[in-house]
Amino acid sequence: MTGRGGQAPSGRGQASSGRGQATRARLLDAAAHLVGEVGWGAVSTRLVAERAGVNPALVHYHFSSVADLLREAVMRTAREMVFQLVDVLTQAGDVRTGVDTLFGFLRPYTGTDPASLLMVEGFLAATREDALRAEFATLIEEIRQRLADWLAACGHPDPVVSAGVFAALIDGLLLHRAVLPDMDFEAYQRTVTRMLSAGVPDRRGRHE
To answer: Is the pTM for the entire model greater than 0.85?
Structure first.
């Protein structure tokens, strides 16, 4: 890749770009953790800069506003969490294996961990901010479609509606764990397996 006049970027320019990307990532990480600690509305330029260990001016150099920073922080975390789950889930060849994979993936998310708290605060903020609501809506539609594709591949008779229920169930489990830390995860797992397996051919039995 070349810069202006066809010249390749200098080593100094590449180093500066790398430092800028590292600073931006630190600001996003700082914002994500602060949301869970102090709440969405209490995160300020000063708090983010202190947590990231940078000059406050750099917050507004990399982001147009604190709201813009928070929006990017929550969507980055949401996409990482969701697509890690969906990628693993869609590798399962049957519903039972998929549900087992899902609950194994969800166990570290207690509802009070930084990622879970960020998601809760992000959903609440999305009810007030149109841009954030639109981004969440797009992400949810993509999740539902990928889950529907997986359920259809498993032979589910109603994959589209079931995918929507499944996606909402995942969010609900994380919300409930925040106030019910002793909830019986195994019981929920068995029930979800029965619900999603209704009408689905038992493919595992064919190979036994």
So the answer is: no
